[in-house]
Write a sequence for this structure.
């Protein structure tokens, strides 16, 4: 099918609520490494990896072979039967996870992993209330949308009682209109204020992403998590670390994003990059906390033998060719290139992130910091026309999210920066 036929059928047979990038949405046909091709055969350098998910590049031979071999044996078992791949993956994750996190419950999506984490925290603490952060994103179930802190992602308006939102550490647009470091990370104290004023005073959990993903790669100051995790524990809660975007070396140096911030989670969720695109998610915790979840629970697709085979291969590939050290190294190159673009183009208000998770906040005017989602849309068209795929996010839709597969090389980074440079030059002229 050509693009036009696909778009026509999309319109006719799929819900209009599908969010599609680009004026003319891109119908992808195949991928290899860092590149994807559309159905007309046009090639693109993929710097969004299907929302930070194709973690070791498209069609990686090791991942594909392991998945194919598993398909030939058995595709589905359900969580009712133990499987070799599932226990091997859980063992591997226990090895690379921070702190005492050594036991897993596998599901099929990030939403389910976050649901499972909150369910566990309530069971383990006996408390019901949960603190989340403004600008957070947790998924598309009713609970996950309630935890989410961006109105546009909370379709329907129905909310689960007992979830409260604290200020987020958004230094570029400080919710307290203060400046780091003279602010003393005052936003972190808001977690305590919210607990004391809007809950019963005892909480089940505080849930947060080490770097807010959909929120626009909002990166907290180094002290933030230590303060909020201490507050969480003081009020009886567990810290749920949502690593759906930041996990598996994405932020460089460490396997998980939270390790940058010097705290240990009580519960940790992961999905996206875990299996290079095969559906899989996981909720990890300590044996003691896990033992508190009693009653019946299953996940039909959770820990699918094919997805777990792919995850084992994906982690092996990361260890061999896309380690957290490699990510830190190429991530630093990407970051310095983006900082140079910031010097050239006033449209760039802020560059932030870690490793291969870099955000560029686009503003119409640096003084007023007025968000410019319009310029972001123009940059999307300008980069697409030059063969580069990028992502976007942020409360105002004005943050470019750059997150290539972790196998990106220096050459890939140089190619992307060159295209971004030309795209910014074209769009900046109109402002
Ligand atoms: C931090 C975070 N948590 C949870 C989710 C939900 O994951 P999924 O879309 O797999 O349900 C996402 C998805 O973008 C996410 O970014």
């Amino acid at each position: 099918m050509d693009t036009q036929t696909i778009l026509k059928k999309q319109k006719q047979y799929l819900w209009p609520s599908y969010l599609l990038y680009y004026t003319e949405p891109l119908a992808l046909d195949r991928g290899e490494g860092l590149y994807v091709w559309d159905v007309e055969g046009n090639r693109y350098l993929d710097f969004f990896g299907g929302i930070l998910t194709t973690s070791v590049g498209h069609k990686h031979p090791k991942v594909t072979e392991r998945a194919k071999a598993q398909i030939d044996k058995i595709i589905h078992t359900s969580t009712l039967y133990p499987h070799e791949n599932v226990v091997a993956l859980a063992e591997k994750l226990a090895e690379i996870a921070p702190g005492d996190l050594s036991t897993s419950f596998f599901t099929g999506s990030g939403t389910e992993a976050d649901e499972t984490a909150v369910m566990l925290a309530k069971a383990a603490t006996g408390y019901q209330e949960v603190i989340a952060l403004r600008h957070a994103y947790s998924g598309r179930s009713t609970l996950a949308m309630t935890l989410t802190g961006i109105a546009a992602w909370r379709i329907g308006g129905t909310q689960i009682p007992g979830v409260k939102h604290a200020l987020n550490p958004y230094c570029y647009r400080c919710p307290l209109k203060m400046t780091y470091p003279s602010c003393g990370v005052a936003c972190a104290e808001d977690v305590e204020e919210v607990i004391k004023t809007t809950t019963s005073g005892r909480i089940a959990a505080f849930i947060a992403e080490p770097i807010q993903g959909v929120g626009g790669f909002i990166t907290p100051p180094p002290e933030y998590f230590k303060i909020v995790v201490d507050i969480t524990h003081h009020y009886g809660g567990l810290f749920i670390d949502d690593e759906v975007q930041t996990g598996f070396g994405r932020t460089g140096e460490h396997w998980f994003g939270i390790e940058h911030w010097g705290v240990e989670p009580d519960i940790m969720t992961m999905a996206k990059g875990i299996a290079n695109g095969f559906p899989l998610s996981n909720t990890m915790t300590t044996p003691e906390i896990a033992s508190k979840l009693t009653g019946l629970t299953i996940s039909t697709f959770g820990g699918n033998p094919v997805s777990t085979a792919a995850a084992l291969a994906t982690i092996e590939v990361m260890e061999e060719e896309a380690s957290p050290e490699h990510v830190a190294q190429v991530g630093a190159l990407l970051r310095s290139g983006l900082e140079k673009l910031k010097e050239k183009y006033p449209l760039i208000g802020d560059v932030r992130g870690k490793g291969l998770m870099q955000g560029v906040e686009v503003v119409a005017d640096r003084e007023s910091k007025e968000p410019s989602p319009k310029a972001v849309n123009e940059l999307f068209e300008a980069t697409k026309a030059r063969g580069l795929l990028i992502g976007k996010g942020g409360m105002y839709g004005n943050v470019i999210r750059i997150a290539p597969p972790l196998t990106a090389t220096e050459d890939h980074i140089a190619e992307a920066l060159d295209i971004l440079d030309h795209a910014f030059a074209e769009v900046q002229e109109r402002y």
Q: What stands out?
A: The longest strand covers residues 357-365.
